[in-house]
Design brief:
Organism: Fregata magnificens
Number of domains: 1
Number of helices: 7
Shape: globular
Number of strands: 7
Pfam families: Methyltransf_11
Largest sheet: 7 strands, mixed
Radius of gyration: 18 Å
InterPro entries: Methyltransf_11, SAM-dependent_MTases_sf, Thiol_S-MT
Low-confidence stretches: none
CATH superfamily: Vaccinia Virus protein VP39
CATH architecture: 3-Layer(aba) Sandwich
Keywords: Membrane, Transmembrane, Transmembrane helix
CATH class: Alpha Beta
Protein name: MET7A protein
Structural class: alpha/beta
Distance between the termini: 41 Å
CATH topology: Rossmann fold
Length: about 250
């Protein structure tokens, strides 16, 4: 399809979302989104995503214990913890440091912490993925990041911080929605939705080719698969899943 048709449909979608664009222009939407809308929406989406991706996540995190330190201790750092949807997959007794740039997920986070008391929660840091200065270099055995790299300011900057905080031989686990094949209708739909989706959903970018950033980062080993999560009527079905070793 031509660039003109993409722009036309983008304009139609922007008209439908005009109240949000107006609130954004007035400086009202972003604080409301961060404090109220996005935490509410993310908890609902996480519940749906969990049902659809449960088997893939169980398989992904199955080998987490293999990355425990020689003492047997397993220290995890989660970037963009949100409501804590991944806690159920972590091995008993592991120590988790949670980080998120948005501190407004307390209710959902507390619910998941209470449900998953097999995990030892060390601390919660308000931090962006590109700036984890509160975490010492080489101090964690594994970093987990799911549905987060779509909205960080810099994917490469975040991966650089991941490599810094991981100990040698540690692993980075990821599950991210990505750009669809450029010749597909899904990609056409992603291009149409992109500006409005990014505004409404707190900076989420639909067309990032995150596999390229992972391939170019300085990991010694990369295990990556493409998969599709059945989320009908959404532009976020194509995903990549896997782990990379420092």
């Amino acid at each position: 399809m031509t660039e003109a048709s993409i722009l036309f449909f983008r304009a139609c979608l922007a008209l439908l979302a005009m109240p949000i664009y107006l609130l954004s222009f007035l400086g009202i939407w972003e604080p409301f989104c961060r404090k109220v809308f996005f935490p509410f929406f993310l908890e609902k989406l996480s519940a749906i995503h969990e049902r659809k991706a449960k088997k893939q996540k169980q398989e992904l995190f199955r080998n987490l214990p293999d990355f425990a330190s020689p003492s047997g201790e397993l220290k995890l750092l989660e970037i963009g913890t949100g409501c804590g949807a991944n806690f159920q997959y972590y091995p008993p007794g592991c120590k988790v440091t949670c980080t998120d740039i948005n501190p407004n997920f307390q209710q959902g986070l507390l619910r998941n912490m209470n449900k998953n008391q097999h995990v030892h929660y060390e601390r919660f840091l308000v931090a962006a993925g590109e700036d984890l200065h509160q975490v010492p270099s080489g101090s964690v055995d594994a970093v987990i990041c799911t549905l987060v790299l779509c909205s960080v300011h810099s994917v490469n900057g975040t991966l650089k911080e991941v490599l810094r905080v991981l100990r040698p031989g540690g692993a980075f686990y990821f599950l991210e929605h990505v750009a669809a094949d450029h010749s597909s209708w899904k990609y056409f739909w992603q291009q149409i939705c992109y500006p409005t989706w990014k505004l409404v959903f707190a900076g989420c970018c639909l067309t990032r080719e995150i596999w390229k950033n992972l391939e170019q980062a300085n990991f010694s080993e990369l295990t990556l698969q493409r998969t599709s999560i059945a989320l009908p009527w959404t532009p976020i079905q194509p995903h990549i899943i896997g782990y990379a070793v420092k």
